[in-house]
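With this grant's support, we have paired protein sequences with backbone structure tokens. One protein thus recorded is set out beneath this paragraph:

_____
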Amino acid sequence: MRIIPAIDIIDGKCVRLTKGDYDTKKIYNENPLEVAKMFEASGIEYLHLVDLDGAKAQHIVNYKVLEQIASKTNLKIDFGGGLKTNEDLYIAFNSGARQITGGSIAIKDPETFKGWISKYGTEKIILGADSNAGKIAISGWQENSTEDVIPFIKGYQKQRIQYVICTDISKDGMLEGPSFDLYKDIISECTNSSSGQSIKLIASGGISKIDELPKLITLGCEGVIIGKAIYENRISLKQLEKFV
């Protein structure tokens, strides 16, 4: 299972929110590159970089931070937040993103999102399936759609989507453990019984201690995104280094 630390950006700074609420913003570091270099020094290979300003503005904003981290580390970065147009995607990939995550656009403008899958391939496009009470949340988690999580993912499996990041918003930033039952259901429901093929599910939200990671591996998660647990020293970089 891939370990993927998260850096969320507001005003060019490394922050964390609780349950996606911008009013709960806590700044952890003024220099995201510094944080990324710490991750890399601990043997981490991947980074989940979220443009929270972009999510609110509905277009890419913090691409300079992406560019800086991509050019000064070897981290493989997946980038999300506010990607809505072909131009946004061009900027993200041109700034060094290895993959991009599309969430709201997959609901609001599925034809554009399907076009991205077709153009860039399923290795580069991640489906963001963020869940609030079983419904897909959109617009930086500021609103809920009417789409149920599992049918939503299954719909994009027909488009051959591979990577799916699922955050249970009720768990995000709470440090109370991830949504094991939700991930179990998704992996079970989204595995093709005849071919045995499944999505590559990346768990996100609520990770609070190192002991939770083996359970996610057992469930079949391909990756796990860890945010606040690192910043609040619930999981140390030394522990992650050993785990990796």
About this structure: Residues 110-120 form the longest helix (11 residues). The mean pLDDT is 93. The radius of gyration is 16 Å. Residues 43 and 244 are 7 Å apart (CA to CA).
